[in-house]
Every structure is written in structure tokens, then in C-alpha cells.
């Protein structure tokens, strides 16, 4: 009888667990394992709620995301999402963390430990700085990188996370150079010692060397750069390097790094691409057609597993597209294109069709975006606009007017259109405050969309509203709760068997 009761109990437990699993199936499926991820930047006055951004990535089956800092809202939204996360330590924080193990402990406790665990964020990497060896920094952060890594590593050990979370340092491609061909690649003389130490650290921990590669910038900065070499359809100007021939700038740049690593004894170190992309506005070569051609070519190239001449059949470990969203508050010192790297616009609307190699040939747009009311600020047609210059200067200093300039989608909308666009950008930046559309009576509010052709007059995002979507974190916590319930029931049933 006892054996029969025990058998019945086992069958009941099996049925119960099956029911629990059924309940879990529609809740936050695991992200597909893919080599392509995205950078999620937040330098914007029109930020979508973090759960909306996470759902946008999940809807497009994007499995990896790289953050430039430890944004708390982003990390909360990523809990239970299934996305693999790289969280960043900013350059400005390196000195403090390098000087103080206690500061490293505090950073890990606040930004990592509290978010990992059952139902938590799947943090796989911590980026110690962002391009800290960049030439323009003139060595400002250079001496802090390795000490900061050492302290953060010790903090991860204390938190029992060191086996799971790896440290990396995203480097700009200006860390290495070549006289002419990839096989001559070497690191900058001032970096050889520190990069050798960094490579040893990465090798011992099983982490990749992370590099940012931008063929667009090569094309933008040099009129002699062959345009077709920046893309992936073959080039009429290939680079011949002994037995190897390079038909695109990405492979040439990648193998220059491989050569540089080989010269310091780490030629087999895995490589991941921390940033790569193509902007859609702000320069003659920055447009939707070019951005789509480059990004689709890159993805197809990486997912083909062809690798490069120096690493045939070995593609980068991960490739993080730059960027997920436009960021209209970024500095324009490098160029007006800096605000337009997004595959999606600031509000999560796909700019062009793109097949990420994950089952869909197109991208899905963001849902549940909390827009401000559909109203715009435009130039008052009944007023003389001759004295508008100072108002335009104010509007475009505070808000984003880069689409009005040469190479922008709003460059050809005429003088009044330019004024209206600038007024509206400022009005939306100020969350549609009526006073921000006054401009000494030169502006007026309208409820008719003034967008012209491809020139879109934006409506801002109401960041004071709470997203109503069912967040993946909530789903994961529910799923974890079901597991706890299951184990409790099993425990009670086992007690019943013995009784």
C-alpha cells in the first residue's frame, strides 16, 4: 500500500510540474543564441521607458545588449528578460575604483550583485571604461584601467560572481595601426606594455578583446578612401597583403588587430566587436540606403561564419551594433551624424528593413510608446519672421536641428519649414510647455502634423508616465514564484509519503 501511495504521489508530482512548465511557456522565453547584439545608449531628452526598450529588443529577438554605464532603470527592466548584458563603468569612475577596493566592492554590490540571481539580469560582462586609450584623451585614463580591473575582479570573487562575469575593456581602433597592410598591424608604442598586460588578463579569464570598428569614419574622414571598400559587396580597390586579399574595410581592420595581438604573443585571443554601425543622417554618406547596405552586409558576413583571411571560419565572438536608438543630445563635435546612429529612431520605429538572422526579414517597431499629445509648434504664418535669428539660435542650441543641415532628411524643406522644425524641436524638448512655443509671438501651436515628405516633425515622449506593458522582469518573478510553489508542494507531498 505504501509503495502504491508513493507511486501515486510521484505521478501527481510529475503532473504538477508539467502543469507548472506549461504555465511558464508563454512567459519570457529565453533569447535565441545569436552573435549580433546592440548598444543601448541613453543620451537623449526623449527616452522611452526602459521596459518598452527591453520589449523592443525581445520582440526582435535581440539576445545581447551593451550598456555604457550601470543605468538602474535599464538593469531593472532587463531582469528576467533573457538578454545577455554587458554593463559599463564610465571612464570618469576609473580613478576612484582603481584607488579603492572598497569603491570597487560598492560598485559591484550596487550595480551587479543586486540584479543577478534567479529572475535577475543575465550580466555576462563588465566593460571597464569605454575607449579609455583613445588618442584624444592624451593618456588621461590610461594608468587607471588595469588597477580598476584588478579591484573589480577581486570584488567579483568576493561576491562569488567571478566565474560567470568577465571583465573587458572596449578599445577604439586607434589603439593599433599599420603602415599599409593588415599583416603589419602593431599597437601604438605608448600602449604596448599596457595592452600586453590587458591581453594576459583577458586570456587568463577567458574574456575577449573588445574593439570598436567604424568603416564609416574612415570614409567620412578621408576623401581618398574608396567608398565601395567600406561595404561588403566587394571592392574595385581591394587590399592585397601577400596571399591574402581584403575586399572590405571591416576585415582589413579586424586582421590588423589580429596581427597586432600576434606580435605581443596573443594572436589567438578571442575578439568581440563592441561597436560597429552606420549613421542615417548628418553627412553626405550617412543615409538610409547606405546604412541598410552596410548593416545588412555586416550581419550577413558575420553570420556566414567565413571569418577573415587571418582567422578563416572564426567570426567575432559577438558583434554589438551601434546603435539601437538615436540619441539627439550627443555631442556633434565629431559631426552631425553622431545623433543618428540608431537602427531605430528615438521612439523605437525601425528606419529600414533589416534581417538580423533571427527568423524575420524586417524589424518590429516599439509598442506602448508614451508619446506626448499629437501637437506641434510651427512658425506663425501671420507674423513677419525677419527677426527670428536669435530664436533659432536658442532652439537649435538646446534641441536637435541636425536634420536641417547638409546631408539631413529635412535639408530641403525651405526657410519657413526650417524655422518650424527648429521651433518644434525646442517645444518637444520642453515637454510641450506652451510658453516654449511663444518665441515673441513668432510661434504657434498646431494640431495638424507639419511633417513634409521624409522630414518628420517629432512628437516627444512623456517620461512622467509609467509604462503599462507587462514587463519581462515581472514575468520572470512570476516564473520564479511558480518554481518556489512547486518545491513547496513537493516537500509537503514527500512528508505525506513518509507519514
Helix % is: 25-40%
CATH H level, superfamily name of the largest domain:
Glycosidases
**Major beta sheet, strand line-up:** 5-4-3-2-1-15-12-9-6
Radius of gyration: 26 Å
Outline the biggest β-sheet.
9 strands, parallel
Overall CATH class of the largest domain: Alpha Beta
Write the CATH architecture name of the largest domain: Alpha-Beta Barrel
In terms of DSSP E residues, the strand content is 5-15%
Globular, elongated, flat, extended or rod-shaped: what is the shape? globular
Please name the CATH topology of the largest domain: TIM Barrel
The succession of helices and strands, N to C, reads HEHEHEHHEHEEEEHEHEEHEHEEEEHHEH
The helix tally amounts to 13
Extract low-pLDDT stretches: 1-34, 466-499
User: Would you count the extended β strands for me?
Assistant: 17
Number of domains: 2
State the separation between the terminal residues, measured CA to CA: 12 Å
Question: Given the helix and strand composition, which structural class is it?
Answer: alpha/beta
Mean pLDDT: 88
Amino acid at each position: 500500500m505504501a509503495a502504491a501511495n508513493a507511486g501515486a504521489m510521484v505521478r501527481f508530482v510529475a503532473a504538477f510540474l508539467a502543469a507548472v512548465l506549461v504555465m511558464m511557456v508563454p512567459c519570457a522565453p529565453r533569447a535565441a543564441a545569436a552573435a549580433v547584439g546592440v548598444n543601448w545608449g541613453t543620451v537623449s531628452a526623449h527616452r522611452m521607458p526602459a521596459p518598452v526598450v527591453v520589449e523592443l529588443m525581445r520582440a526582435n529577438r535581440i539576445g545581447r545588449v551593451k550598456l555604457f554605464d550601470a543605468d538602474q532603470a535599464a538593469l531593472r527592466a532587463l531582469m528576467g528578460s533573457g538578454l545577455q548584458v554587458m554593463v559599463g563603468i564610465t571612464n570618469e569612475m576609473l580613478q576612484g575604483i582603481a584607488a579603492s577596493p572598497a569603491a570597487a566592492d560598492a560598485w559591484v554590490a550596487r550595480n551587479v550583485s543586486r540584479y543577478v540571481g534567479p529572475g535577475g539580469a543575465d550580466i555576462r560582462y563588465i566593460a571597464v571604461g569605454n575607449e579609455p586609450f583613445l588618442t584624444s584623451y592624451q593618456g588621461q585614463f590610461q594608468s587607471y584601467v588595469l588597477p580598476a580591473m584588478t579591484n573589480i575582479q577581486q570584488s567579483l570573487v568576493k561576491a562569488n560572481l567571478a566565474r560567470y562575469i568577465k571583465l573587458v575593456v572596449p578599445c577604439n581602433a586607434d589603439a593599433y595601426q599599420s603602415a599599409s597592410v593588415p599583416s603589419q598591424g602593431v599597437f601604438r608604442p605608448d600602449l604596448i606594455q599596457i595592452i600586453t598586460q590587458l591581453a594576459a588578463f583577458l586570456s587568463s579569464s577567458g574574456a575577449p578583446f573588445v574593439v570598436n570598428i567604424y568603416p564609416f569614419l574612415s570614409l567620412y574622414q578621408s576623401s581618398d578612401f574608396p567608398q565601395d571598400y567600406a561595404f561588403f559587396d566587394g571592392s574595385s580597390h581591394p587590399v592585397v597583403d601577400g596571399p591574402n586579399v581584403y575586399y572590405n574595410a571591416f576585415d582589413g581592420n579586424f586582421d590588423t588587430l589580429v596581427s597586432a595581438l600576434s606580435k605581443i604573443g596573443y594572436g589567438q585571443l578571442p575578439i568581440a566587436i563592441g561597436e560597429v554601425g552606420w549613421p542615417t543622417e548628418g553627412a553626405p554618406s550617412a543615409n538610409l540606403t547606405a546604412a541598410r547596405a552596410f548593416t545588412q552586409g555586416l550581419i550577413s558576413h558575420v553570420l556566414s561564419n567565413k571569418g577573415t583571411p587571418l582567422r578563416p571560419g572564426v567570426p567575432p565572438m559577438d558583434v554589438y551594433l551601434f546603435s539601437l536608438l538615436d540619441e539627439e543630445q550627443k555631442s556633434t563635435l565629431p559631426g552631425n551624424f553622431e545623433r543618428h546612429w540608431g537602427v531605430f529612431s528615438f521612439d523605437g520605429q525601425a528606419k529600414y528593413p533589416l534581417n538580423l538572422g533571427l527568423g524575420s526579414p524586417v524589424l518590429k517597431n516599439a509598442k506602448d510608446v508614451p508619446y506626448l499629445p499629437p501637437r506641434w509648434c510651427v512658425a506663425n504664418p501671420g507674423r513677419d519672421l525677419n527677426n527670428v535669428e536669435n530664436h533659432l539660435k536658442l532652439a537649435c542650441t538646446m534641441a536637435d536641428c541636425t536634420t536641417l543641415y547638409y546631408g539631413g532628411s529635412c535639408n530641403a524643406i525651405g526657410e519657413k519649414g526650417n524655422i518650424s522644425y527648429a521651433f518644434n524641436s525646442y517645444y518637444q524638448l520642453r515637454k510641450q510647455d506652451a510658453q516654449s512655443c511663444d518665441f515673441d509671438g513668432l510661434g504657434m501651436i498646431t494640431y495638424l502634423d507639419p511633417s513634409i515628405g521624409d522630414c518628420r516633425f517629432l512628437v516627444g515622449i512623456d517620461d512622467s508616465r509609467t509604462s503599462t506593458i507587462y514587463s519581462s522582469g515581472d514575468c520572470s518573478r512570476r516564473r520564479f514564484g511558480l518554481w518556489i510553489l512547486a518545491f513547496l508542494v513537493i516537500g509537503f507531498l514527500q512528508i505525506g509519503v513518509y507519514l
